[in-house]
Amino acid sequence: MIRQPQIENIKEDGGKGRYGEFGGQYVPETLMHALLELEKGFDEAIHDTSFLKEYREILHDYSGRPTPVTYCERLSQRIGGAQIYLKREDLNHTGAHKINNAVGQALLARRMGKKRMIAETGAGQHGVATATVAAYFGMPCKVFMGVVDVERQALNVFRMRLLGAEVVPVSSGNGTLKDAINEALRYWAANVEDTAYIDGSVVGPHPYPMIVRDFQRIIGDEARAQMIEKTGKLPDAACACVGGGSNAMGLFTAFLNDPVALYGAEAGGKGTDTPEHAATLTKGRPGVIHGAMTYLLQDQNGQIIEPYSISAGLDYPGIGPEHAHLAKSGRACYEAVTDQEAIDALMTLSEKEGILPALESAHGLALAMKKAKTMQTDQSILVCLSGRGDKDVNTILHVLDEAKTDQGGRK
Amino acid sequence: MMNRMSNYMNKKQDMMFIPFITAGDPSEDATVELAFMLQSVGACALELGIPYSDPLADGPVIQRASKRALSKGMSLLGALQLVKKIRLRGVKIPVIIFTYCNLLLQLGEETFFREAKENEIDGLLVPDLPFEESRGLAERCINHGISLISLVAPTTSEQRMGKIGASAQGFLYCVSSLGVTGVRKKFHPDVFPFLERVRAACELPIAVGFGISSNEQVDELRGHADGFIVGSAIVSQIERRADRLQKSESLSPAVEEIREYLLNTLLGKHKVGKNHERTAQQAETLSTGKTG
């Protein structure tokens, strides 16, 4: 169930949407009107019971919520520590948690009289979710996607087109997610009057980190009640993967005031001792990216560095500002998980439980398995399984083939 | 203390020409020569853009300029120090640094203000720092004698326009149309009532930017604004000659061609002479002021 949003910290100088020193609205003047309008529209909607009712009804009837919590008996035995539970966001319509937010923002867009939707996407999951709800609501939709990602994620590009969305390849910058966000924001600035920008994660200028969190907190709110029902108590820890961090914020928000340890898994890529990773909190410095003050990967002059991860959904050089705040305040703990650790976790879950997780979610699972090992058997850890892994089968096949070749070579 | 900004930028001018170029595009030497040329055709101030990996407010032309300059290793600090060479070349008009917020954050304000003083920089424009986020910086800019340039857009509400207009420094930058920088053929008719609103909210000179590329557009704005900012139209000409601008033997003729282009398409002969004279005269007054 969705709760009333918290009133955000107001910074001394009047800046809004602050999480400690992070967040804010670092955007061109051309976007300020749209952000202020969106903030007002969201504030009205979230206090309107009929709006919340419709949001929950659509998620129930169309996406199959509530998603279950699954106890992983064989996996837990194998680890030999805390009992592992999965919040099954992979069982949502379109196969990931992204639909929760897309439904919420599309409803908000319709309520605010917007005629068209735009979105950015990296791996394509948020693009697919937005294209899906655009079809459901009968609204035209443009999805901005870096040219490199268009090539890497051909299947999702096809899915979006099937759903009637226009996929706009973005060749500016490096042609990846960060450039797709830049381009979506540029397009929005030129078309703010009738267009809604459906932001896919808890990133960007205020009010987006708040809106996306509040539309994703249904994950944690459901899971909290389900854990109490199943085990008679709260979990001892909750864990999720973090790119921008929407599924993690969705999970964490319900537990912020509970004695529950919170863990976020960043993409460690080929290792944080190499340049190829997306471990923003581990290796980044505070700065401004896409309209928010947060941690980001940047060079010494402040130019943004292109991140790397085997998982396209974690491949983002920034992180949601609320995560930056939770990290700095120590309320949540973030650790890097490498490509290899994620692949291992993915294979273990497939073999032990018959669940093929998305590569993104496998990062969260890998960290949870590490933590479970250090915990007692009467303790529990709840993992957000944010998406299913069907989309990643080709990538996994490729990695396993390479590993075989390597071994062959050594012999 | 003399204020170069208000000497060169005031409402007495007939349509102040405020050009934008990206520092280091396509080389430091080219930037110095282009700056000098722009002053000679009557620029009242120079906006010097700092290349950034993620220029959110810019269209494709300036994005590409950023890429060219970054590939040459240009940085905010490098650009601030380049202004010293621009000054040595004889550029006397105010120089306004146009930088995205993250570059300024990473350099640090202390270093910025020190270098700005050292290199005779007059203004600062941070396109991704709206009124609400810029109050602290605005105060520190005043303390350091730097004009923090504010922007207003057609979508800016009356309430915010009042606040922005009342605290603006130097001049007020009016964004002519929604979207990003880049050449547009015509103004939206709403631009004129918008400029009326800006006039009512601000005592400083007002200048219009985004999409200006022709003398006809400048004529249309006359009477509604005090100046105009031209970026992409100039940067396109630089891009077209990027190779020649990088070679010392072809630098001067390439700059000369851009001068001709600006005189023919943008500035119109009748007004350039006037502005140029005035600028030269002011430059003299200024240097007299300096020695005295």
From TrEMBL, chain A:
Residues modified to N6-(pyridoxal phosphate)lysine: K98
Cofactor entry: pyridoxal 5'-phosphate
Pfam families registered for this protein in UniProt: PALP
Listed GO MF terms: tryptophan synthase activity
PROSITE patterns documented for this protein: TRP_SYNTHASE_BETA
Cited InterPro entries: Trp_synth_b_CS (IPR006653), Trp_synth_beta (IPR006654), Trp_synth_beta/beta-like (IPR023026), TrpB-like_PALP (IPR001926), TrpB-like_PALP_sf (IPR036052)
Keyword vocabulary terms for this entry: Amino-acid biosynthesis, Aromatic amino acid biosynthesis, Lyase, Pyridoxal phosphate, Tryptophan biosynthesis
GO cellular component term of the entry, any: cytoplasm
Catalytic activity field: (1S,2R)-1-C-(indol-3-yl)glycerol 3-phosphate + L-serine = D-glyceraldehyde 3-phosphate + L-tryptophan + H2O
E.C. code: 4.2.1.20
Tryptophan synthase beta chain-like PALP domain ranges (all copies): 64-387
Pathway membership, UniProt: Amino-acid biosynthesis; L-tryptophan biosynthesis; L-tryptophan from chorismate: step 5/5
Function: The beta subunit is responsible for the synthesis of L-tryptophan from indole and L-serine.
Family: Belongs to the TrpB family.
Subunit structure: Tetramer of two alpha and two beta chains.
Name of the protein in question: Tryptophan synthase beta chain
From TrEMBL, chain B:
Residue stretches in coiled coil: none
Source lineage: Bacteria, Bacillati, Bacillota, Bacilli, Bacillales
Keyword terms of this UniProt record: Amino-acid biosynthesis, Aromatic amino acid biosynthesis, Lyase, Tryptophan biosynthesis
Listed PANTHER family: TRYPTOPHAN SYNTHASE ALPHA CHAIN, CHLOROPLASTIC (PTHR43406:SF1), TRYPTOPHAN SYNTHASE, ALPHA CHAIN (PTHR43406)
Source organism of the structure: Sporolactobacillus putidus
Record-level Gene Ontology MF annotations: tryptophan synthase activity
Keyword Amino-acid biosynthesis: yes
GO CC annotation: cytosol
Region annotation (Disordered) ranges: 273-292
Reactions listed under catalytic activity: (1S,2R)-1-C-(indol-3-yl)glycerol 3-phosphate + L-serine = D-glyceraldehyde 3-phosphate + L-tryptophan + H2O
InterPro entries: Aldolase_TIM, RibuloseP-bd_barrel, Trp_synthase_alpha_AS, Trp_synthase_suA
Subunit structure, as described in the record: Tetramer of two alpha and two beta chains.
Class of this enzyme: lyase
Enzyme Commission number(s): 4.2.1.20
Record's function text: The alpha subunit is responsible for the aldol cleavage of indoleglycerol phosphate to indole and glyceraldehyde 3-phosphate.
Pfam families: Trp_syntA (PF00290)
Catalytic residues as annotated in Swiss-Prot or TrEMBL: E47, D58
Residue spans of biased composition, Polar residues class: 280-292
Known pathway: Amino-acid biosynthesis; L-tryptophan biosynthesis; L-tryptophan from chorismate: step 5/5
SUPFAM superfamilies (alphabetical): Ribulose-phoshate binding barrel
Recorded family membership: Belongs to the TrpA family.
Protein name (record): Tryptophan synthase alpha chain
Alphabetical list of PROSITE patterns matching this protein: TRP_SYNTHASE_ALPHA (PS00167)
